[in-house]
Amino acid sequence: MKDKPDPRHNLPKRRLTETRRIETPDGHTIHLSVGYDPNEDGRPREVFYSAGFKSGSALEFQIQDACVLISILLQHGHRPDAIAKSLARTARPDGAIAYASITGLIADELVKAQLSSA
């Protein structure tokens, strides 16, 4: 028997949105808009790509799609930290561990957003 996903959490039409800036390891700056749920202690429930890569580029579309998928997970009850810990990481030249993709960086930024709203 298949498990049914949690029902989608519908957000109110008006909600707090914050634009956040992240740096990629290769020096790009990405701007994200994080939407918070005012009914659940300001928990992040959606993320949108705002700017950072050439408009119409394949990378821009990949980031937009990653944001949609992460938003769907958030709206079905997944927490940012659970999403982030499931994504690939790699060792940097300085020995530190970092997310291996921009999707991981976005998820990590949502973890930070959740911590700052608590």
Number of strands: 5
Strand order of the largest sheet: 1-2-3
Give the helix proportion (percent range). Answer: 25-40%
Give the class from helix and strand content and strand pairing. Answer: alpha+beta
Q: How many domains is the backbone divided into?
A: 1
Mean pLDDT: 85
Question: Can you describe what's shown?
Answer:
A 3-stranded antiparallel sheet has the order 1-2-3. It is 34% helix and 26% strand. The longest helix has 18 residues, at 58-75. The relative contact order is 0.19. With 118 residues, the protein is an alpha+beta fold. The chain has one domain.
Topology of this structure?
Blueprint: E1 17-23, E2 29-37, E3 43-51, H1 58-75, H2 80-85, E4 89-91, E5 97-99, H3 102-117
Antiparallel strand pairs: 1-2, 2-3, 4-5
What structural keywords apply?
two-stranded antiparallel sheet; alpha+beta; three-stranded antiparallel beta sheet; 118 residues
Overview in brief:
With 118 residues, the protein is α+β, with helices and mostly antiparallel strands. It has three helices and five strands, in the order βββααββα.
